[in-house]
Every structure is written in C-alpha cells, then in structure tokens.
Design goal:
It contains 4 helices and 7 strands. With 154 residues, it is an alpha+beta fold. The protein is globular.
Length: 154
C-alpha cells in the first residue's frame, strides 16, 4: 500500500496572550470551551496536558476511536500530539505567537491513511473543509477567552 498523506495549516489571531490560551489546549480544559468535546484521560501525572499525556476520543464519526499522545510540550508556545486510529494517524501541532492584540495560533495537521477507509477520510479533508473546521474551533476558543464561558452551538 502507498499511504495517502496530506498536510493542512490554519493561522488566526486570538484576543488573549499565549499564557492565557496555552492551558486551554489540554484534553481536560477543552471541556470548558468545546461543547462537543469528550475524551477519556488514560495517563497524566498532573491530571492535565503534559509531555507523555495519553487520552482517547471517539466522536462517533468515520474516524472511530483515536488515541492521542502529547509528543511536544513547550509551555505557552507549542503543544504537539500524535493521534492514531483504525484508519488514519495524525501529527497535530498547535503553536502560539504573541502579537499586539493577544496571540496568533497556528493549527497544523499532517494526516496519513492506514487503509482504504483512511484514504476516503483524507480525501474529505480539503483545504476548504479544514479551514471551516478550524474557524469554528477558533470561534469557540476566542468566545471563551472573551466571555469566560462556553459558546452555545446549535
């Protein structure tokens, strides 16, 4: 098999400093700002994101159950994950840079298919689809940063 691989990057400003944003990029803290977030924390010495933290997700979509491992942890700058499921594996990096109004966040994913279903999943992650998804995630995060509560979605 010759696996399919794509990379997607999305940059956008946020209304808060990297020091305020970074703690929210954690499987436990995401419950505060993502209405649909669900995970099972498998291992964390501190109870939060840290190097070597392991958790799983299953959102009932084509990806199925996925296991995430924090593989990069640079406080207030960058967090990286390797996420593996039945059909795809993903390197996922979130980076923060300070700017005059708060910070710029970069969401970067590199997806590799593991089978034919993975090929179909990757085919659906067009630049437009990825940008739409990341705009939505960013709106949820920025709303929380501005209002201190979760944005209700319909």
């Amino acid at each position: 098999m010759s696996a399919k691989r794509i990379a997607r990057i999305f940059n956008t400003p946020l209304s808060a400093s990297p020091e305020r944003v970074f703690p929210l990029l954690c499987p436990v803290q995401e419950y505060d700002w993502i209405p649909t977030w669900r995970c099972d924390l498998i291992y964390s010495k501190s109870g939060y994101a840290e190097l070597g933290c392991v958790f799983s997700t299953d959102f009932g979509d084509a990806s199925g159950k996925e296991t995430w491992v924090v593989c990069t942890y640079e406080k207030n700058r960058c967090i990286g994950f390797v996420k593996t499921g039945t059909h795809c594996t993903t390197r996922y990096t979130v980076s923060l840079q300070p700017n005059q109004s708060g910070s710029t966040i970069q969401w970067e994913q590199e997806l590799t298919s593991l089978d034919d279903q993975g090929d179909r999943i990757i085919d659906g992650v067009t630049k437009e689809a990825y940008d739409e998804k990341m705009k939505h995630i960013n709106e949820l995060l920025d709303f929380y940063l501005l209002h201190g509560k979760q944005k209700q979605t319909t």
